[in-house]
Amino acid sequence: MISNGRTFDYEETICLTTGNVLWSNRSRKMLTILGDTVGRHDFLLTPCSVDTFHHFYPDKPIHHGCFGNLAQALAPYGISEDAIPVAFNCFMNVPIQNSGRLSVERPVSRPGDFIQLQAECDLIIGLTACSAYSSGLTATKESVWGFPPACRRASLGGCAMGSASPFRLPTVNAWTTSCRLP
User: Fold this and answer.
1) Nearest-CA neighbor of 165 among 133, 124, 130?
2) 10 pLDDT band (50/70/90 cuts)?
3) Where in the numbering of this chain does the DUF1989 domain appear (predicted)?
4) Which are the contacts of 118, defined by CB distance < 8 A and separation ≥ 6?
């Protein structure tokens, strides 16, 4: 399982970008960031859920958020809700104030920006697009993932609000993927 704690420990930074590795809770390399034109991603916040929306946005419509999307998409793979870790939130802008307070701000990414990841082991990854109201992503952006033909599935063209797409990510031939903003 991906671990933000191990990743921060081993990479000695919370600002993950080109050259950094995402580590498992068993100290195994999972993904290497080969390229990154943004340099701003979040690995602190948990995926939003119904409870998150009740807490932070009580006056707005409630939905199941990324956590619900991931739970639904990963269940067929035997991954329970309790096994869903803190997410690596590509392009999510979560600055840390001097006081230690976190905030979710609009992304600093622009069309054409990308992150390129290389799998270091066999993985099952769930993708979903942030639907938190403060993120500036609600139903307005879609991430386009490039997959080698052997890994393509009809459901992987993009991840819009309200859905998640799981897929198996093999390490065959140092497989890589890029997420590029349209």
Assistant:
1) 124
2) very high
3) 2-124
4) 31, 32, 34, 174, 175, 176
Cβ partners under 8 Å of residue 163, min gap 6: 69, 73, 128, 155
Residue 59: other Cβ atoms inside 10 A: 5
pLDDT band at 176 (very low <50, low <70, confident <90, very high): very low
For the segment 17-51, what is each residue's pLDDT rounded down to a tens digit?
Answer: 999 999 999 999 999 998 899 999 999 988 888 88
Look up residue 173 and give its two tokens. 């031939």
Beta strands in the chain, from DSSP E residues, in sequence order:
21-23, 29-36, 114-119, 123-128, 143-146, 158-159, 164-169, 176-180
The predicted-structure confidence for 129-150, as pLDDT tens digits, reads as follows 776 666 665 443 334 444 433 3
- DSSP annotation of 42: B
